[in-house]
Every structure is written in C-alpha cells, then in structure tokens.
Amino acid sequence: QQQVKQSPQSLIVQKGGISIINCAYENTAFDYFPWYQQFPGKGPALLIAIRPDVSEKKEGRFTISFNKSAKQFSLHIMDSQPGDSATYFCAASRRSNFGNEKLTFGTGTRLTIIP
Amino acid sequence: GAVVSQHPSWVICKSGTSVKIECRSLDFQATTMFWYRQFPKQSLMLMATSNEGSKATYEQGVEKDKFLINHASLTLSTLTVTSAHPEDSSFYICSARGRGTPSLRAQYFGPGTRLLVL
C-alpha cells in the first residue's frame, strides 16, 4: 500500500512537444505529491508539488494534474526542450506528527528530448 | 532558499576503511535530515531519517552499525560508512526539511556523494 507506480520507464519526445509522465498510488493517506528532476550525477531537484485539494497546479512549463478519485497524478512538460532531458521521479507522502514524514518515490522516468 | 551541500562529492577508499560524508543545510534550519542510496538507473532508497538531537531511525535492512548517522546540529548531518567494502560503492544523497524553506513539507536534496570502494 506504500507503492507509487510510475510510467513510462523511458520517454522520447520531440523538441517543442508535450512530455507526459504518470503516477498512481494506493495509500489514500498520502496528501503531498512532489515531482523531482534529476540530472546524471546530481541530486534530485524539487520541480513542483501538489496537494489533493486541487486538481491542477502550473508553474511555468510544468503542470501537475491530480485525480483524487482515480488516485493518479501526472506531470506535463509543455514546449519540451533538450535541457529538460533528465530523469523524473514522482513521490508521495503523508503528514507525520513526529517530524519524520517520508517520501515514497516512483521508479523514475528517463526523458529524452530530441531536436 | 533551501540549499543543501554535501562533502565530498567523490571519494575513493580502500576496502576496510571508514568514510565520512557531510551534509549541510546552508540557508535554513534542517529539523529533519534523510540519507538515501541510489544505484545506477534506479530510484532512491531511503536509508535513515534523523531529527536534530535525536538518534537516527533506520529503514528495514539497513545496518545501523555499518552506516552511522549523526545529526548534531540544525545545519549538519554526517553519514559514516564503517569498514567499507566494494558492495558499499554507490551514490549517497542527503536531503533536508525544515524552517526557512519555501515549503515545510518538501525535502531539499544535496548534490550527492559518489563512493567507490576498491
């Protein structure tokens, strides 16, 4: 029940296109859903996050869509650029009163933007 | 805001030696710090969680005597890999959460430390 399933494993998108990565979760106690971007040899960087009381959140070219009833959320990258080529991880967590709120990560999607 | 640094970025050591990795929050108070391990082309595996001034909580299967974690201040946590062996070679990443960050719930990650044990 702690899993977060992410798809696809890899994705190739043409420059200027829309990249879409999907995640699904099982634990209905999850109430925080961040996305991270990781370049080779670097630590993950927080991209955008959403809470389940909203269905969509947009920051620049990045949009999270959230479907609470389906227990799914997705990342959309508009006007994809070669610099977006990286591995993307979705994650989920539930609030903890003891300060040890932990992230459950998806398996990652390797995104490649081709010219 | 929410910058996390790690030192060293690369370390090569001989089998049987101990290696210490530092994780620092540069512009915020890290009330909670996390240590992860990542194998090539895989997701992040949480090793342990530590709150400032408390003993670390280790995930199942992680040897606490092998991976010593200290979170002595609100800006510094250390991971010591004791008696390192080649199977400990990996990419170790810390993250932190705390006061003074854009989001109190977000984890902010360091750049990682690549450990190679010969």
Offer a concise description of the structure.
The complex is a heterodimer of chains A (115) and B (118). Chain A has 115 residues and is mostly beta strands. Chain A has strands at residues 4-7, 10-14, 19-25, 33-38, 45-50, 56-59, 62-67, 72-77, 86-92, 104-105, 109-114.
Which helices and strands occur, and which strands form pairs?
The complex is a heterodimer of chains A (115) and B (118).
Chain A: E1 4-7, E2 10-14, E3 19-25, E4 33-38, E5 45-50, E6 56-59, E7 62-67, E8 72-77, E9 86-92, E10 104-105, E11 109-114
Parallel strand pairs in A: 2-11
Antiparallel strand pairs in A: 1-3, 3-8, 4-5, 4-9, 6-7, 7-8, 9-10, 9-11
Chain B: E1 4-7, E2 10-13, E3 19-25, E4 29-38, E5 44-51, E6 57-58, E7 67-73, E8 76-81, E9 90-99, E10 108-109, E11 113-117
Parallel strand pairs in B: 2-11
Antiparallel strand pairs in B: 1-3, 3-8, 4-5, 4-9, 5-6, 7-8, 9-10, 9-11
Major beta sheet of chain B, specifics? 7 strands, mixed
Total strand count of chain B, please?
A: 11
Low-pLDDT parts of chain A are: none
Beta-strand residue percentage of chain A: over 45%
Number of strands of chain A: 11
Q: What structural category do the secondary elements of chain B indicate?
A: mainly beta
**What is the overall pLDDT average of chain B?**
95
Structural class of chain A: mainly beta
Helix content of chain A: under 10%
N- and C-termini, Cα separation of chain B: 37 Å
SSE succession of chain B: EEEEEEEEEEE
Specify the number of helices of chain B: 0
Largest interface: A-B, 23 and 27 residues
Question: How much is the radius of gyration of chain B in Å?
Answer: 13 Å
Number of helices of chain A: 0
Helix/strand order of chain A, N-terminal first: EEEEEEEEEEE
- In one word, what is the shape of chain A? globular
The residue-averaged pLDDT of chain A reads: 95
How big a fraction of the residues of chain B is strand?
over 45%
Shape of chain B: globular
